[in-house]
Every structure is written in structure tokens, then in C-alpha cells.
Amino acid sequence: MNEDSLSLVVASNSAYEIWKCLEEHYLASTKEQEIQLKGQLSIKRGSNESLEDFLKKFKSTCDNLTAIRKPLDDLDKVFQLSRVVGSRYQSYNLAVLLKPPYPTFRQYILGLQNTERDLKEFEEEYRE
What we know:
Elements: H1 3-9, H2 15-41, H3 51-67, H4 74-84, H5 90-97, H6 105-127
Helix pairs in contact: 2-3
């Protein structure tokens, strides 16, 4: 335990009191982190940002939420990602999210990657 934490619990008489004291102290910072991380999940993909880079950031933010014990379930991740990934994937989103059964987060990402590949191939053919 670091010195800051130790100074918080020095007057505690039981493990329960120590736990409650630490929980009250650190809960505020955890809540702030949760709000900040959830805010990051609602930032739309930039027009010059690759899908892969965007997905890495999104997954990392989800992992950070899990690390502070505030994980999103698969369906929340799917719908949150669908809102911020961009209009380029609107047709894909309509096809897979219009009605249940909904894809898992992994399935949704694989579908996005396949859609991206198909769109790039179409754009290359169109240029020729």
C-alpha cells in the first residue's frame, strides 16, 4: 500500500473500515475516469483516420473501462461503435442492426472490416 493510501486508513480499526475508507476515496476518481472513457467512446471517427486505427482506440477504451470494473456488454459496444464509425458503413449497420439477432462485438468488427475491404475494392474499380 502506498503512503497516500496508508495515511487514509491509519485510524481505521477493522478491515471493513479500511475498505470503506479506500473505496470512498478512490470511487470519485473511478467515476471521473468512467465518464471520461465513455465520452471517448462517443467521439466519431475522423475522416482521415483508418478503420483499423479507430477500432484499436475503441477497443482500448473498452479495455480501460473493464480495468476500472465498468465494462460495457457486447451489445452496448456494438451499438456504440455503430453510432461513431461513420456514415460510410450505414448500409452495413442497417443490414445487421435492424432487428435481432444482433452480432457479437467480434462479429460486428469482422463485418466492418469486410465492408471496408469491399468498399475499397469498389472504389478502385470505379476509378479505372
